[in-house]
Amino acid sequence: MNLRVKHWVYGVFCLLVAIIVIGPKLHAASNAHPKKAVVESQVKEKPTQEKNVNSSESHMRTPIDWHKSSETIPYPDLSKVKDFWIKVDLKNNRTYLYDGSKIIYTMYSTGGIYKKDPKTGKMKSVTPTGTFYAQQERGDSFFNQSLKEGANYYVSWKNHGEYLFHSVPTKADGKYNEREAAKLGKTQGSHGCIRLSVPDAQWMEKNLPVGTKIEIVG
């Protein structure tokens, strides 16, 4: 074997050794960066997850208690609210207090039961939907003799006493109908009015300004 061939064989041998010894190290090094990127990505996502905890309903009282306010924080000070209005979501059993586009308080509520509309064949709430305005009629209690049902802390929003915000219903003896009260925030059940917890209804009666816009959807 001449010298040139020996050099060629030796060169090939060295190249094979380099591939066998150094190759795995290079592969391991190349995989290190993606792992680091994954870890950094997870770290960056944590603030977003924490932010989601502070949602509009993060202060809602659970389980629902019709004896108490819907949120565990104080009611809003309307003297500091620039653009106050209310949205009632019949299907989701929530009443939202807004300042412009921002929800400032959420109340558990119960609207009218759903019945089939003879004209369309679709299920429709007996609570009217649309835009209404808070009216001056309000008081501490009432009893509807024809319905054998009453409530406390009411304020009218349509037909001057026909459709109201009021507490969960009371019976003829003035005691709360606990079976109906248990529906609050969970399902529909009224004859058309919007039922609220006792403290929420009391706050509405005392604080809801006449003329406040009320949008009812669902």
TrEMBL record:
CDD domains per record: YkuD_like
Keyword terms, alphabetized: Cell shape, Cell wall biogenesis/degradation, Peptidoglycan synthesis, Transferase
A GO CC term attached to the entry: extracellular region
Gene Ontology biological-process entries: cell wall organization; peptidoglycan-protein cross-linking; regulation of cell shape
Recorded metabolic or biological pathway in which this protein acts: Cell wall biogenesis; peptidoglycan biosynthesis
Active site: H166, C193
Region (Disordered): 37-61
A single MF term (Gene Ontology): transferase activity
Keyword Transferase: yes
Annotated InterPro entries: LD-transpeptidase (IPR050979), LD_TPept_cat_dom (IPR005490), Transpep_catalytic_dom (IPR038063)
Matching PROSITE patterns: LD_TPASE
SUPFAM superfamilies: L,D-transpeptidase catalytic domain-like
Domain L,D-TPase catalytic, first and last residues per copy: 84-217
Protein name, entry field: L,D-transpeptidase
